[in-house]
Amino acid sequence: MVRKNAVEKKVCLACPPSRNKRPLREFYKSNSPMHSDGFVPWCKNCIVKNSLDENGNIDVKKFKNVLRQIDKPFYMDYLRAAENECKKRLGESGKEIKNYGEKIIKRYMKNVQSLRQVNDKTYSDSEESGFSLNPKLAITEEQFIKELTNKAKDKKKRKWSKSDTQNKKYVISVLGYDPFEDVYLSEEDRRYGFNILAGYCDTEGIREDGHKIQGVIEISILYIQCRKITESINKELSHNILNGTEISKLVSSKTSLLSAIATIAKDNNIASNYNKNSKQGKDSLTSKMKEMEENGFRDIQVNLFDIKTSEAFKQIDEISNSNISKQLSLDSGDYNEIIKDQRELIKKYEEKTDFLEEENRKLKNRLIEIIGTTE
Length: 375
Prior knowledge:
Elements: E1 9-11, E2 21-23, E3 27-29, E4 39-43, H1 44-49, H2 60-70, H3 76-91, H4 100-114, H5 123-128, H6 141-157, H7 162-175, H8 187-200, H9 210-237, H10 244-267, H11 285-294, H12 311-327, H13 332-374
Antiparallel strand pairs: 1-2, 3-4
């Protein structure tokens, strides 16, 4: 507790000597037995300044060292909770959060000072509990640092590239308006939505069918929601202790969204699997040849010729048979077999020739009868 005769100013042990006297309002309160005046020895600005890296992000090792110096507890689950609070309070609009690391530290310090379950804890107390009060929400320093690194990369990704801007302009030119203007989407979600929707704007008949336009817009929004659920699933899977119930709910929600997307695509003949007039495969060579054949294009017909009557193939056949004869050493038995096969073939073709000659004779007689009748 603060003594009644406490001075209104206090010396900050981390500030330069020339300006180390600070008002009490610039210090966090403390219940540590090491702080007889009821305040931590470092001012709020020094706590923040000595806990960040050169880019303004939290340096977990530095932050732990600061908390050790001021004898405040360090809990990874509370640090992550503070980070989530800042993201929720300041990031819902999709705008980049300025001084992100500073806001997280201030939120953390406010929580550990005001929450009854931790406001009387010291650094040694947090060390004994493994730097976590809730095992289900536990996260390692490496995981937390990795998440912060990914968020820093995400800030760079939020910038609209040239292709993103082109897709946005193309969508608006096709639809005539911005479909994501008043649907409470962040800039990152709008960027993703325009990239998705630009592909659907090439759907056959999209410009003439208002119902189909609303269908592809709805599909794009559903894909944005699927993306958010996928991110949440990946975050849950990155934890040391998995929350099976939460993961099952997320997977179920994503399945429902994908089912809704498939239904809209089917009802509006958008996807090639459902589109009866789909052009999928129509540009292949086989399809084009088939189309020309169906349209009676004579030059597409295969140019056939009789191999048996071709002089070129006759020469090839003679050369081949000659080479075979030279390479084979046939005995009398082999010759007998060959002669036998030849006799059978000769007999077969003689019978066939006789049959065709007789059939030809009958046809000629029939033709004479028909001509005589017509005359």
